Structure formats: C-alpha cells, structure tokens
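// run 5 | inverse folding | seed 20
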C-alpha cells in the first residue's frame, strides 16, 4: 500500500495535508465508517480519493450533482487516474459496457447518481466488483432535515447491503447537529469516526448592510477592494445588468448563468480565474468545484434561500487565509421578495396532484401506463397550455424529480440561442427594408441584454407572447435573420426531457410522498426565516449567529463583522465638533454631495447626516440647485 503523503505529492503536487485530511484518510484506511464535515474549501474529495488510490480495487462515489461528478472525473483523468461517471441518458448497452469496464478495466473510481442504484443491472455488476470504499458526497441529501433532501439517497443502503464488508465515508460542507445524527443513522454506520472541522473562518468578515441604493454601495466596495470578487444575483437578466453597470463604472466584470452555452461559461470562468476580469456576476449555478484562493469579496445582492447555501457561497472568499469579506446588501423589499420567491410558490399536496395529472394528460398517458417513457417538451408551453404559475409548476416538477416519480433533464445547452453579429447601424438599416421583422427584433433586444456580445438562450414562448406573434412566425423570422447573416442561430423547440419512472397512478402516486411534501415545505419555511433572522439581527455577532446555527454553542464575537464594527464605533467617543469643522473646511474648497463628503470625513453615515442637518439649521451651510452642499459666506 502506498503512503498517503506520497500519493498526495504524486497526483496533487502538495507536500502536506490540510487540517483533518490526514486523520480522516487514516481512519478510512483502517476500515472505519467515517463522517467528515468540512466547510467549503476544506478539501473533501481528497479524503476519499487518496485512500481509494492507496488500496486495490474501485471506489464507488455517490453524488447528486452531475456537473460535479463530471468535473471530478475530468480532473482525475488529467492526473492519469482511471475514472468514469454513469449519469442519465446512457443507453442500456452503453451502461452494460461501462459497468464491465469497472469490473475488468482496472478503474479506480465509479461515480453514480443515487437513482442508478435502483437498477438491477447496476446492483448485479457492483456485486462482482472489487469495491475498496463507498463514498457518499453531499451526504446531507440523505437526511430529511438536510438542505436539498433527496429520497433516492435512501438507495445507498442497498449499496451497503450489496458490499457489506466495505467501509463508507460520508462527506458534506453544511450540516446541523440534527442532520449529522440523521446521516449516521441512515447510512447504518457502526461506531463511526466523526470529524467536524469548526465552521469558524477567522479571516472572513461577514457583513450585512441596509442600502436603498445597492449599486452605489456595490461600486464603493469593489473600488475599495479591487481584487477578485463574486457577486451573486437571483436571475440571468440581473447578471447582464450588473455586468453592464460595473463596466460603465470602469470595473471589469463577466457573467455566469444557466442560459449561457458551455463554451461561453468556460471562457468567462477562465477570464475571472486568471484575473483578466475582477468580478464574476453569477447566479447560484456558479462556484461548485471552483477553487480560486484569492477571492477578496463575495457579495449577495439578493437574500439567499438558506443559511446552508449562503455559508457555502460566502465561503468561497479568502481561502488563501488573507482577510476577506462576505457581504449581503439588503433593503426593505428583500424580505418580502424572498418570501414571495421561496415560500409563496411551495407546492401543496393538492398542487402536486393537479400538476402531475396535467403532465400526464399533456403527454396523453393512460392510467397505469407510461413507465420508462421519455418525452421532449417545452416547459413554458406546458405552463401556457394549462395556465399554470411557472414557478409553482417548476418547483412541482423538481419535487417529482427528487422523489423519483419522473426524471427531469434540462437541456439548457441545446435550447434556442442566438447572437446578433452586425452593428446597431447595420441592423436598423436592414429593418428599414424588413418592416415585418421590426417588432420581433425589438422585442428580443429589449428582453435580452448583451445579445450583441454573447450568444444568449432565449425563451421562444416569452418572446412570441411579447411580440404578439405565433411561435411558428417567430421561428420563421429567426431563420430569415440567420439566412441574411444578421444573427447566428441554434434552434431547438424543446428545453427539457421528462422520463416517467412510474406508471401513471394520479392521486395514489402522490399520496405515497405526501408526508415528504409537507415536511419539506416546513423545512423550507424554517430555512427562509433563518435567513431573515440572520440579516435582521444587528445585535449578535454575525459569525456567532452562523456558528450557532451549525451547532457551535461556544462561539465568541469575531470583532470584524458588521455588528462588531458597529459596536466598536458606538463605544468610540465621536468628536461632533471635529466633524463640523471638517465639513466646513471641505466645503470651503468645493461644493459636494453628502456621498462625496463621506469620502473626505471619518465618521459614520448617521453622524454625517446629523451634522449636516445641524449646520443647515444654523444656516452655516446651504444647498445648491444641483442638490450639493455649499458653505454660506
């Protein structure tokens, strides 16, 4: 057996382990069942990859994240390590061949989704494999109290029964004590070795600011800290708007969201990783598997949906140990917005029954039929057909996917996408002779920013509705624009695939998962309100709030978060007279707005506003017609 440190040096070019890694690896090599709770950036994958490489045989890795599976398999292959992943969309013959490769091809890693463990072929072949370790990634998914619980994770118990002599390691970056206990129970661990690294990040300052003008504050933060940053936003459109705003302010930025093609995503990501762009503006689709150590700030312009997801996203800052900032910018509308987005569109049991019936009717599936049938479909067309709330319908389909009633495959990389490849002037000259295209083109331009610079996925149903034309007329117009070299076009009229995993049984099928629906809705309610409590609590240290949430009861105030700094400022005796003198001195040179004054004077915003109010009352200063302050002479 090779020594773990030699494997680390050979494949990863490191000469020492991060905290807990070596102890975890030793416990795994000794045949123990191991639970590893390591925060984001703690190097979880090495904890199962190195012991698997040290021993004869193959390691089976169960993960719910297809993108992460593919990234890890690619990374292992680049190191010369034989690995493969079995995801959806693989034919029976290909699956048969891949599993044979695992038995006879000297492979070291087999990555599986939990749903695959239900297949008899997979179970039979695993029995024949020389398995040296079972690794359960994102292990919180097995707990009903965990973030993103997936009932299919219960199938991992089958894996333990098939290979009863093989030990197991479970890994996660976010789990409350209740979730940890549930994971250990569900995976049938025997006297497990539990390793829990503290969630404390002493170099990371958690900040929450109430800002009516978020964009002004955003600009100030990024100009004060001109190093690599991530800005998380809620929508694709917002990524484009924020990138446009930052570039106009002289701050280099790029974007990442699910609507971009794989090629553009990779190009944008590399620009940011190589520090060619300061800022990555992204939806929560970005960050998994990204290990950029020098991120200075992570900024959330919208409230996250849970403390677990926030902690993971915030934790991408300061991995090099330098001081870094995790910032939430909020205002009065954000609490209402997060409730509307995540709570008002939670499907009830009746909602799920109704939408499941409509889905079956949409594809004309008879009662008792439909198992293993696959369909292409357009999500927005489905919603339009039955006048469904799209968010409620989407959440319902996601729930049916997680409960293995259907399998939902998004094909964002194959959706209709286009890019204008002519100048504005050339485009409008063209439209002067093609009046019938005028409305469609202007609708696309007003709906999708950045479509001259990037190839953008478009929602054909939305565009046709806004332009008041049929989809067929829209597609004809797009084909003409492509023929005339006005746009590049990739045309596909479906955006998803659905496989029905069970025969249609209407209410009976949903009744079997009704307890899960109720329990998950209750959990989501608690998670959203935990976020609201976090951003609204300005008395308890932000670090203490987070650590307490994850079960660390003895946490001490960090001294660097927004709450701690605010307390320090209150304790410090402010010389009001000095502030007045400073204001008068600056205004004797130039008229300035309160924002510009704040750049010259050391005091809090409240203190400056109070001072300006006093000086106005005493008529020592006045306001100009440009709404700037001036010195009265």
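// decoded
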């Amino acid at each position: 057996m090779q020594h773990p440190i030699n494997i680390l040096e050979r494949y990863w070019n490191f000469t020492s382990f991060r905290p807990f890694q070596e102890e975890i690896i030793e416990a795994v090599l000794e045949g123990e069942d191991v639970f590893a709770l390591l925060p984001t950036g703690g190097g979880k994958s090495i904890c199962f990859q190195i012991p698997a490489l040290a021993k004869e045989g193959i390691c089976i890795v169960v993960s719910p994240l297809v993108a992460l599976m593919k990234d890890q398999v690619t990374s292992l292959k680049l190191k010369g390590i034989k690995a493969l992943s079995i995801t959806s969309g693989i034919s029976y013959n290909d699956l048969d061949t891949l599993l044979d490769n695992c038995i006879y091809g000297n492979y070291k890693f087999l990555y599986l989704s939990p749903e695959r463990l239900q297949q008899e072929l997979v179970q039979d072949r695993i029995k024949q494999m020389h398995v040296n370790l079972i690794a359960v990634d994102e292990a919180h998914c097995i707990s009903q109290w965990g973030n993103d619980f997936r009932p299919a994770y219960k199938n991992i118990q089958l894996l333990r029964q098939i290979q009863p002599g093989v030990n197991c390691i479970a890994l996660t970056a976010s789990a409350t004590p209740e979730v940890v206990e549930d994971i250990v129970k569900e995976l049938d661990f025997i006297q497990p070795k539990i390793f829990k690294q503290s969630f404390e990040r002493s170099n990371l300052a958690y900040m929450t600011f109430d800002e009516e003008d978020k964009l002004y504050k955003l600009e100030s933060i990024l100009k004060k800290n001109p190093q690599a940053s991530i800005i998380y936003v809620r929508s694709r459109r917002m990524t484009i708007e924020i990138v446009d705003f930052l570039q106009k302010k002289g701050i280099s930025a790029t974007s990442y969201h699910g609507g971009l093609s794989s090629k553009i995503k990779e190009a944008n990501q590399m620009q940011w990783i190589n520090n060619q762009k300061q800022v990555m503006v992204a939806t929560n689709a970005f960050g998994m598997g990204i290990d950029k150590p020098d991120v200075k700030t992570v900024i959330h312009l919208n409230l996250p949906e849970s403390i677990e997801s926030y902690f993971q996203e915030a934790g991408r800052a300061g991995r090099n140990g330098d001081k870094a900032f995790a910032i939430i910018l909020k205002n009065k509308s954000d609490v209402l917005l997060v409730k509307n987005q995540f709570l008002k569109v939670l499907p009830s049991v009746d909602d799920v029954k109704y939408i499941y019936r409509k889905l079956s009717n949409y594809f004309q599936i008879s009662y008792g039929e439909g198992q293993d049938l696959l369909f292409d479909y357009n999500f927005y067309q489905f919603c339009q057909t039955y006048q469904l709330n799209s968010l409620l319908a989407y959440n319902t389909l996601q729930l049916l996917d997680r409960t293995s009633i259907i399998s939902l495959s998004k094909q964002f990389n194959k959706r209709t996408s286009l890019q204008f490849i002519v100048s504005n002037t050339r485009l409008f000259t063209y439209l002067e002779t093609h009046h019938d295209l005028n409305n469609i083109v202007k609708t696309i331009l007003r709906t999708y920013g950045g479509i001259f610079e990037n190839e953008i996925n478009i929602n054909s149903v939305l565009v046709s509705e806004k332009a008041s034309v049929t989809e067929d007329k829209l597609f004809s117009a797009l084909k003409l624009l492509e023929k005339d070299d006005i746009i590049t076009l990739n045309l596909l009229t479906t955006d998803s695939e659905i496989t029905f995993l069970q025969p249609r049984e209407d209410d009976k099928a949903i009744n079997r998962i009704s307890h899960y629906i109720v329990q998950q809705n209750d959990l989501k309610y608690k998670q959203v309100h935990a976020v609201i409590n976090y951003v609204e609590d300005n008395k308890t240290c932000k670090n203490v709030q987070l650590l307490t949430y994850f079960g660390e009861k003895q946490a001490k105030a960090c001294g660097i978060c927004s709450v701690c700094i605010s307390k320090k400022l209150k304790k410090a005796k402010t010389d009001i007279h000095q502030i007045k003198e400073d204001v008068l001195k600056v205004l004797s040179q130039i008229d300035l707005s309160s924002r510009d004054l704040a750049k010259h004077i050391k005091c809090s915003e409240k203190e400056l506003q109070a001072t300006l109010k006093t000086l106005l009352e005493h008529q020592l200063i006045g306001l100009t017609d440009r709404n700037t302050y001036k010195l009265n002479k």
